Every structure is written in structure tokens, then in C-alpha cells.
Structure to design on (390 residues):
DNA sequence: CACATCTTGAAACGATCGGTGCAAGATGTG
DNA sequence: CACATCTTGCACCGATCGTTTCAAGATGTG
């Protein structure tokens, strides 16, 4: 029934990523992965290894697809920290609004939430978060924020990013998500209202 | 080996809630539930029904335990919307810091994230979120916010609440969580920094 | 004590889980 | 064509999943 591979490896990985994206790690069964990719079990295991390896490759695939978008949005000159925050969150909003990907990404947010994920996968997720955090901090510093404000804003923007994914998954409208993102861009440069 | 129940039903439900709290719905296997509650399979099924029913009862148990805390923090008079937001998020921070509950609650945040949860459970989670939202909106109106600001702040505070749970689960420090909560309290009453 | 009621532990159910073995078939090379 | 190499579909593995069944034992009532 075969001599050379009858599928595109990169496209299959993209589809597998979308299965994890939609179902998370535990609920992404091998049957769902074979169905989503169109591959048979043998092809899936022969090409990508076992489930946890495939998940890690899906994470890598996600990073190499979307991290450049964040990098591009943050690399240019920005007039203020607020603009940096808004630009970062806009990338997330764009990704959520993308009709070619499943609704509600369970890769970035809930990867750390699924207890079934092994230590190697957890470490990879943490490294991805750390990379985005550094990316944000550099852009904030370049936009004129001091060290303390940079640390705070990077953290809060990451937090907002996570909440956008959660709210999206929970069925909140894109208008609501845009409202949350816009409010996060209003945090910079404000004194504490509490004593 | 028994004639009358050899355990406290309410305490067993509390422990079952903590198992879902720690593991989420899919990863909370019956074995983990029997181990966590100390009950046998027969007692568990005989008392609480099947797994999805037990999860719903755990959700109810969570709501009746923690929603009064939010209600209490919001019911008194507040000088400003900022204080309302801060008071609300402080309840979440306190719950996260509680040493008697597991680290990283997968009940409120990720209940909507787990595809395995049935429609009835999903609806219950949405109803809980809706109740908290209404509670917040009433307190914000009472604190002098107009309709538009109330809607925006209630949404953003809910979003921050979710992100706190996610960041907590991801291993961020309690100082980081407090920073995020404090920054959210700085949103009210600020003009948009972007054109 | 007799008897109905309830609870419990243990075994077992079918279904699904992630993963493997293997023969059949397609390909590239000689 | 002969042959080694690779891929694929299919069956199957043990383990675990949620759930049910059932007999044994403890209790409350007469």
C-alpha cells in the first residue's frame, strides 16, 4: 500500500497541532490524531514518535509559527509602553480571530494546566512563556519604561494574554476580548489608586 | 461490612471537589477520587452518582463555599471602583494562598477548557461566571461607576481572576499574582492612551 | 432471634487508552 | 526481473477508563 510517504509531513504536523489545540493533551486521543491528520497509526508513530513527542513537536511548530508574529509586532520602535502592550495583545486577538484555526487554543494556556503532560513538555511550555516575557521586556525598555514598570507590564501583559485565551475558549465575544485587551493597554504609567 | 454510612457525606464531597480541583475533570479518575475521598467505588457511586454528577455536585459545593466570600467582600460600601476591583481580586488571592486547598484550581478556569465536560457541566460553569459578573456589576455601580465603565471593569476583573488562576497553576509566585491584581485595580477611571 | 434495609469490598464488565508487531504492497536500484 | 527498503493498514497487546453486579456483613425494627 505504500513505498514513499503519501502525505506531507509538515502539513500533518500542522493538523496534529490543531488537534492538541482543540482538545488539549489528554483528550487528544490517538484516534482523534489519526482522524485529524488523515494518517494511520503506523505512519503517525513512524513519523513523529509517541504521543508526548508529537505534542512537543506541535509546541515547537506553534512557537515557530506564532512567535515571529509577536517578534515582528514588538521589534519596531514604539512611542510608549501602552503601544507595546496593545501591539502584543493585538497579535493574540488576531490569532483568536483567525478562521483557519480551531476556537479556543489549549496549547499555550492550558498546557501548564494539564497534569497529564510530562516534565519535558511542561519545561518546554515554561521556556516558551519565558521567551515571550523577555521579548516583551526588551520592547518595553525600548519604549521608555523603567525597570520596575517593565517587569510589571510584561507580567500583566502575559496575564492578559492568558485570560484572552481562557475567555475565548469560554465563549466570550471578540468585542469582549478586545475590551479586555484595550483595558490592559491602559495600565502603564498610572499611579496606584490604593494607599 | 457496613450497615450505616461509615463516612461524612459532606466531607467526602469536599475531598472529591479537591480532587477535581487538583486534576481537572478528565484526569480525575475514579481511582483518584476513591483514593482522595477514602470511599470505595460502591459508596462513591451510591452516594453521589456517576462521575459527571459528582463533578457537578463539586461545582455546587465550590460555589456555596466561595461565592459568599466574594459577596461579603463586595456587599459593603466602597469609595471607588478601584477598591471594588481590588477587594474582589483579594478574595481570589486569599483562596490561592490557602494552604488547605490544592495548588492551582482547575475548577473555575479550566472547567470551560475541558472538552470532556458534558453540556450540563459547561452550563453550570457559565452560570457561576454569570453570577459573579452580576455581583461585580452591582458593586461597581454602587461605587459610582457609570454603566459603560461598570461593564468594562466587571469583564476585566473576571479576566484578571482567570489569569490569576492560570498563572498560579503555572507556578508564578504569590508576589507576581499580587502584582497582577494590583495592576488590574489601576484600570478604572483612566482615559484610553491610544487614539 | 428473624427479617428487611442499607452499605461495603471485591470482582468483573465492555470500551477505550497508548503503543506494537507484522505481513502486504509500493518504490528505487541494480 | 530480483531485491532491499520503506510505508501502510490491520490486528492485537496490556493497562486503564467509567460503570455495574453481587454476595457478605452491619444495622434498625419487630
Amino acid at each position: 500500500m505504500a513505498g514513499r510517504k503519501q502525505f506531507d509531513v509538515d502539513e500533518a504536523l500542522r493538523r496534529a497541532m490543531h488537534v492538541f489545540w482543540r482538545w488539549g493533551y489528554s483528550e487528544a486521543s490517538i484516534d482523534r490524531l489519526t482522524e485529524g491528520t488523515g494518517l494511520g497509526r503506523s505512519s503517525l508513530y513512524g513519523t513523529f514518535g509517541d504521543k508526548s513527542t508529537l505534542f512537543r513537536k506541535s509546541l515547537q511548530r506553534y512557537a515557530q509559527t506564532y512567535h515571529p508574529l509577536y517578534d515582528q509586532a514588538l521589534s519596531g520602535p514604539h512611542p510608549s509602553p501602552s503601544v507595546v502592550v496593545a501591539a502584543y495583545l493585538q497579535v493574540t486577538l488576531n490569532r483568536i480571530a483567525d478562521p483557519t484555526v480551531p476556537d479556543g487554543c489549549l496549547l499555550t494556556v492550558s498546557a501548564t494546566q494539564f497534569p497529564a503532560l510530562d516534565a519535558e513538555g511542561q519545561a518546554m511550555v515554561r521556556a516558551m512563556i519565558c521567551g515571550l516575557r523577555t521579548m516583551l521586556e526588551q520592547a518595553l525598555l525600548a519604549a521608555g519604561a523603567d525597570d520596575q514598570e517593565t517587569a510589571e507590564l510584561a507580567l500583566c501583559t502575559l496575564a492578559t494574554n492568558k485570560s484572552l485565551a481562557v475567555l475565548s475558549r469560554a465563549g466570550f465575544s471578540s468585542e469582549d476580548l478586545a475590551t479586555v485587551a484595550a483595558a490592559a493597554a491602559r495600565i502603564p504609567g498610572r499611579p496606584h489608586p490604593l494607599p
